[in-house]
């Protein structure tokens, strides 16, 4: 079994949330690097979240919401 086959499938919600995250960032006209810096994470990881290639822990969700000056509830409020 290859490494690719062992990777678990990313839930659809994570993919849709990533699209929402990117749209929000573009709407607010901020770079991926700026949000990543404010959240204290690597821009490459944030890019993976936006592309739906990586699941996010709740603690990371909180940090990203803070970077957008939003609550986690506000950040999660989008049409799925």
From TrEMBL:
Naturally occurring in which organism (per UniProt): Flagellimonas flava
Highest rank taxon of the organism: Bacteria
PROSITE patterns: HTH_CROC1 (PS50943)
InterPro entries the UniProt entry points to: Cro/C1-type_HTH, Lambda_DNA-bd_dom_sf
Protein name: Helix-turn-helix domain-containing protein
Heme listed as a keyword: no
CDD domains listed in its UniProt record: HTH_XRE (cd00093)
Pfam families documented for this protein: HTH_3 (PF01381)
Keywords per UniProt: DNA-binding
Stretches assigned to the HTH cro/C1-type domain: 21-75
Keyword Acyltransferase found: no
GO molecular function: DNA binding
């Amino acid at each position: 079994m290859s490494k690719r086959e062992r990777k678990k499938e990313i839930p659809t919600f994570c993919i849709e949330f990533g699209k929402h995250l990117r749209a929000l960032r573009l709407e607010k006209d901020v770079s991926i690097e700026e949000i990543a810096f404010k959240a204290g994470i690597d821009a490459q990881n944030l890019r993976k979240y936006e592309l739906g290639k990586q699941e996010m822990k709740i603690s990371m969700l909180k940090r990203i919401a803070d970077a957008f000056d939003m609550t986690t509830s506000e950040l999660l409020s989008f049409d799925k």
